[in-house]
## 1
Amino acid sequence: MTDFNEARERMVERQIVRRGIRDPQVLAAMRVVPREAFVPDYVRDLAYEDRPLPIGNEQTISQPAIVATMIEAAELQPGDIVLDVGTGSGYAAAVAAAIAAHVYSIERHAELVATARDILARLNISNVTVHLGDATTGLAEHAPYDAIIAAAGGPHIPAAWRNQLAIGGRIVMPVGRELHYQRLVKLVRRGEDDYRSSSLGEVSFVPLVGADAWPGPDAAQCDAGGTVGTMDTGGTGGTGGADDRRPCPMSAGAHASRHRLLAVA
């Protein structure tokens, strides 16, 4: 039988600390949140492997290192109000909630919303509230946010998130014009209309689907790259621009490879 406490400590030391994560609050949160509680029983013994894992609805729980990287980049502090985009099973929200005052998390899959709420309740994590809806519109009723952390990649940062970010707030999000390969971007709001961005490295996440991101899948025929439609190739970088491609269904194995860190800048 797996000793999950030992496996969790080994994960922190080998996968998190060795990758340069130093924030003591992040390391403490990663040590206390039981990742095995957030995955299906059939992959529970793999909970502390250095990889994403499937959680249903063609979604994955992120690789532990990318969760730690994003939360460290968000510079969370006690008292912060956080918007977590792409709840999944609730793991990243739980890690953030071990540091921040409250995490509002939004997920578009009703089944995952129910699963996350159940797991968080069983773990007595009371400072995470999970909402069902289009994450690209944010949650204006709880704004402004000190940090917004997104576990899905879009062609640009949604306008609503910028507007709902507090002055001094941070957005950490995978951004790119390729559906499944992005740059992890950190955006800091310095003033009312003053935003500064930096790149943290290459990542691979499932697409952010919504009104201000990628359109949802439809019945059209997918191309070999897992997309439908055509792409406007003008420009570089993934900070905006038109893109008519839509994410199409992927195999379970393909989805399980998402939510991972490819390189650090």
Note: Residues 4-212+225-261 form a domain with the Rossmann fold fold (CATH 3.40.50.150).
## 2
Amino acid sequence: MNLSTLARTSLLHLSPLRSTSSTRDNATESVAIEGRNINFSVNTRQGKMVPILKDCSIRIPSGQLWMLLGPNGCGKSTLLKILAGLLTPTNGALYVRRPKSYVFQNPDHQVGTNLSLQTPEASLTMQVVMPTVEADVAFGLGRLNLTNSEVRSRVSKALEAVGMSEYLQRPVQTLSGGQKQRVAIAGALAEACKVLLLDELTTFLDESDQMGVIKAVQNLLDISGEVTALWVTHRLEELEYADGAVYMEDGRVIMHGDAASISKFIKAKQSSYIDRINS
């Protein structure tokens, strides 16, 4: 089977959207993220419309870790921001289970951005850097009218899920990049987040921190059974930890399916490219 046939075959497994509303019936509860024919364009200073995303369709099952990858500039981070509600698509149908949380690429810019169940789609509750890890994870819980005991319980369970329990009283500024990312994820988990949208979390991390973040996400998915994670990455080796993957090129979803098939497809493209430049 050649590459184009493999890509077309994988796309056939993407079921059509059943609903575009913010609530789901029982038949669709197994899906956490679903989009159909999502387009996004920007206006240049000359008034020209430039397409960034072109008819992108995805479907991510609940309780799984999926990865979104492709070459630089292919539109993967733009698609993630649309799923988070940070950008509005030009057209297309979209559903993302809520509450959801978006965690940025650079942990030194901020720890996290939580998109709460009660706020409009584009409204954000910014999680700032607090004095300690405990305070930082608890920061977003202030609006939930919880008792002190309930807050401590949620913080403790969230930090345990990401392997950061021993850092409870540690000053945030003393943490490594990977540890800060894990604190951001713990903050989302403490707020009962159902969908994690993770934008290239390991880009600025060393190998040890990279593995710590990946294992933290895997662990919290295993513990909760309800959290779904979509992880934007450019590192092909991270695919081995994913349940499924979406591969993009030039603003389009090229493949959508199991991680092994996506990995095989990308490696075949890389090999073909190397053969061409060496011929």
Note: Confidence is low (pLDDT under 50) at residues 1-28, 116-128.
## 3
Amino acid sequence: MDLLAPSFRSVVDTDNGPGDTKDEQVNKVDAAMDWVRQHVLGRFRKYGFKVWEHRDDPAYETRIDDKLREARQGVGLLRRANEGERKPLLRVLLMAYGRIGRRRYELMLPLMPTAMGRDMKEALSAGNGMVDGGADEELQDETDQKTRAAARRPNAAEVNNGHWTAYVRDFSPQLRALLESQSRLPPPHLTRPPLRKLKPQVEELNSWFRPMPLSRVKNQTKEWYADVLYKAHPPLPLPEWQRLRALAVGTLKEGMRPRRTPIAPARRQSALELVVMYGKPNPRKAFGNKQAHQITPRYMRRLWAQVFAQCPVMEWEAEKARWKVTWGEQALGMAYTLELEEAVAEKAAATSG
């Protein structure tokens, strides 16, 4: 880990404003860099303890080899991102801001119904023990399950008319507001396909033109429910959303530290020499990374804008008693419109003067 953090710091290290004190400069850590550090440490700690538990199990060596292969792939991803390759760098930012990967599930937790949120907490806590469980709500969950089991199961027509909560849990108010906003104002589908159906559409007749069996109705309803949750974009916390907006618009700058120049060998090895020495040459070592890009503020601003366009934020409107959802794409559009209006106004003032 000590080798990964310095190599990635030049990509995601934060800039400190001229008015920041020394303590504030130390405490300001970029979300991407902090997430990468914590993710790598958590994974190694988790599997380091598991390796110790299975130290006398020869069959566990295959699992260790698989995880070491994943770790090497992660190192390669960070190395290519640090070289400015667009896809790896964008993937790291998407994982850090919860558009894909583990953090997306963590951001979905507050939106989920009680029992599903508890199940997700248990799944995440099984990963590294960092998430608390919800044992105090078990009694209410068991009561809800007994109530649903005793109720009559609806058929396909009733499910299509909105009576699908007998098979799956109803959306929470926050999740429903988010899904309705996402369906009405779809963000760029960079990581998730667009959300089209907020209600299940189950075929009422099977291939024999008979009423669809209730077991099939149940399975199709669960498939629709899982598809909706898969396509949902969880909201970011307000301070993080505001900071990412400032990075995407350009009002907040991050200092780009120059990369340390590696010590070049006296002579670059040819592809034939690499084959003789290692058996399979690495194209990047033999010919260099052709997709590398110089990491400039303008380059990073474009990547941050791509990530921010998919990030919503939710605020409670007390006057209207509802959740307000604002998407990054909307905020970017308003910021660019305001910037254009200011430029036109300055040009008009200069012309008239």
Note: Residues 1-29, 128-143 have pLDDT under 50 and may be disordered.
## 4
Amino acid sequence: MLKNVIRNAGFAVLGLLAGTGLLSPEHSHATDYATIEASPALWTIEADGATVHLLGTFHLLPDALNWRSDAVNAAFDEADTLWLEADVLSAEAQAQMQALIPQLGLNPQGVTLSSLLGPDTYAAFEAQTAELGVPAGNFEPVQPWLAGITLGAMQLQSFGFNPAMGVEAVLSAQANAQGKSIGYLETAEGQLRILADLPMDIQIEWLRVSLDEMGDLRGELDRMVTAWATGDMDMLDSQVNGSIRDASPELYEALMVNRNHDWVPHIEAMLAAGGTHFVAVGAGHMPGDDGVVALLQAQGHTVTRR
């Protein structure tokens, strides 16, 4: 189960890494995403002349997937403001992230990744980096959490998943072109610290199990993206959140539940302010009893699926 905790936690910050220049897209599609008739789940709250639309997102997507349904397009077009998790796409944010990731992700002087992992796990790490065409030695100064996420992101891009086609990148470009305001629910630093603050033994086990199970990543990712694109929220909740809930309640609280609770007052403030808002956050934050939709409903809001 830990492999899914690690993998799904990594998906939560892949968008951040995509904004730092650490990653470069490649093109190798395993699934014919062009055949998917996408209709991602979209919810709407209306109150006292204000409207908030809610869409779950994936930070990296294949070029061939057309996820823009008529409902999503209509909701976005009528919005005055786009709200995202954090600013990771602007030039200023990318410069900040270039400095922040090394600050949070480097080992103390004299400590190397290979010394932390031990010979067996580091040998597996070397094999995986060789497959991706990256020298393992480049990662020696890096803490296990950052090494694992970077490696996973590179693997995703080797499957043809492109940060430039991620929902946030696409919507941000359109919002700028249409003169919409863009707001953020949290900071990139706060997102990264969730993983950077993990105890070292958890980081090492995270990377070890990820390496053992890297071969299953493509099929698992296909299932997740298909569930999201077709609006299958039960499957999405099971794939993205279920394993985290079962295997590491503490990480689930930190990565998902606490942030969901933090975002509810922001969304209520949008309703109080008036106007039309489009909120686009990671797909795993929407479904389930701890998801944003359920939390808003618990506060008495009528949340309608479009």
Note: Residues 2-23+38-300 form one domain.
